[in-house]
Amino acid sequence: MKYTFDIPVYYEDTDAGGIVYYANYLKFAERARTEFLHALGLTNKAMLDDGFAIVVRRVEIDYKRPAKLEDIITVSSSLEELGAASMVMRQTMTRNEQELVDLKVYLAFIDVRALRPVRIPAELKEKFKMYLGEETCSHK
Fold first, then answer.
1. 25 DSSP assignment
2. Most C-beta atoms within 10 A of its C-beta, which of 10, 29, 117, 134?
3. At the fourth CATH level, which superfamily is domain 2-138?
4. In contact, 12 and 80? CB cutoff 8 Å
5. Do residues 99 and 92 make contact, with C-beta atoms less than 8 angstroms apart?
6. Cβ contact 100:94 at 8 Å
7. Structural domain boundaries in the chain
8. Which helix (H) or strand (E) holds 78?
9. What's the helix, strand, coil split of the chain in %, to 5?
10. Is the dihedral of CA 24, 62, 68, 2 positive or negative?
11. At a CB cut-off of 8 Å and minimum separation 6, what does 35 contact?
């Protein structure tokens, strides 16, 4: 299933020409991942309180078309892989169904005290499993 989240492009997101600055797509992806967690009933603060965090290990990003000032970007997120202590998320950004950016984000679960990998809690892994695949679940 895909989780979708809409993000408006503000002036602060753009360069002098009104085009989204390339690094801001990473911020948009992070916001969408945070909202994805919220939809599962999880917050970053709660995870930290429980002693673990989800961190970005690697990102592959393909810029296809620019987003512009006052566009509404839809970020679709789904899981491609779900391991014992990691997962791979595919995030695509579109405007009016036209693909702008494609990201493959490699995420790891870590123990925040030891800064070492930790297994994904079983109950959380079950929630993640429903996002392996292509069906869409919209949250706007």
1. H
2. 29
3. Hotdog Thioesterase (3.10.129.10)
4. no
5. yes
6. yes
7. 2-138
8. strand 72-82
9. 25, 45, 30
10. negative
11. 3, 5, 139
Q: Tell me the per-residue pLDDT of 59-78, one tens digit each, with 9 for 90 and over.
A: 999 999 999 999 999 999 99
Query: Quick one: pLDDT at residue 140?
Result: 43
Tokens of 105: 């984000």
Taking the C-alpha atoms of residue 61 and residue 79, their distance in angstroms, rounded to an integer, is 16
Strands in 9-65 per DSSP E: 52-63
In the set 6, 15, 50, 62, the catalytic residue is 15
Beta bridge partners of 64: none
Active-site residue flag, 102: no
**Residues 37-58: tens digit of each pLDDT:** 999 999 999 999 999 999 999 9
